[in-house]
Amino acid sequence: MATPDFVLDLREKIGTAPLPLVGVTAVVFRDEKVLLGKRADNGSWQPVSGIVDPGEEPADAAVRECLEEAGVVVRAERLALVHQVPRIVYANGDQVDYLDLVFRCSWVSGDPHPADGELTEVGFYDLGQMTDVAPEHVRKIALAVAEDDPATFRGGR
Q1: Alpha-carbon span 84 to 100, nearest angstrom
Q2: How far apart are CA 13 and CA 8, in angstroms?
Q3: Of 99, 114, 110, 113, nearest to 153 (Cα)?
Q4: Which residue, of 76, 121, 147, 148, is most buried by count of CB atoms within 10 Å of its CB?
Q5: Could you give the dihedral angle defined by the CA atoms of residues 151, 61, 44 and 115, in that order, rounded to the nearest 10 degrees?
Q6: What is the chain's alpha carbon radius of gyration, rounded to the nearest angstrom?
Q7: pTM (predicted TM-score)
Q8: 3, 21 in Cβ contact below 8 A?
Q9: Measured in Å, how far apart are the chain's first and last C-alpha atoms?
Q10: What's the distance, CA 82 to chain centroid?
Q11: Counting runs of H as helices and runs of E as strands, what totals does the chain give?
């Protein structure tokens, strides 16, 4: 999916200035495997992620993104991590500050496939096969592994 219309509308007003957005990451488990996708834009392997639409519940956004990007139906089970992603500056100069809400999710149905073009490959992988996953995504997965741990927060001093 392309950049959401509400972001494009905001960009018309603020140009490339920093834009605070809420994002979600869905760490989806099926048996002892985790759903990972290879991003079309930068080739990195990571859990499914996306932007929360205005008025949308974050857990619903995580579920929606899994269906849109990977063609799987999931259930959001718990919040695993809340953190601020370091500012991202895109090639066109747009700056974004994402507050990322990471959800532990369980697979309900569907065979993973690149559904909307944001991912070039997607599937369930053994936790030991995550050699191409960046450390920040490994941390998200590690925090989501436990089924009943409380969410982790940075800061809060």
Answers
A1: 6
A2: 9
A3: 99
A4: 76
A5: 140
A6: 15
A7: 0.92
A8: no
A9: 38
A10: 12
A11: 3, 9
Structure-block tokens of residue 19: 């834009």
State the Cα–Cα distance between residues 85 and 128, nearest whole angstrom: 25
Which residue carries 């140009």 as its tokens?
15
- Tell me: the pLDDT tens digits for 13-44? 999 999 999 999 999 999 999 999 999 988 99
Q: Where are the beta strands (DSSP E) in 31-151?
A: 33-39, 45-46, 48-51, 73-84, 88-89, 95-109, 119-126
User: What residues contact residue 74 under an 8 Å CB cut-off, 6+ apart?
Assistant: 26, 28, 62, 63, 66, 67, 105, 106, 107, 108
State the pLDDT at residue 3: 83
148: left (phi over 0), alpha (psi -120 to 50) or beta: alpha
The residues, ordered by sequence, that sit 6+ positions from 3 with a Cβ below 8 Å of its Cβ are: none
State the Cα–Cα distance between residues 73 and 70, nearest whole angstrom. 9
Helix (H, G, I), strand (E, B) or coil at 143: helix
Distance CA 122, CA 37 (A): 4
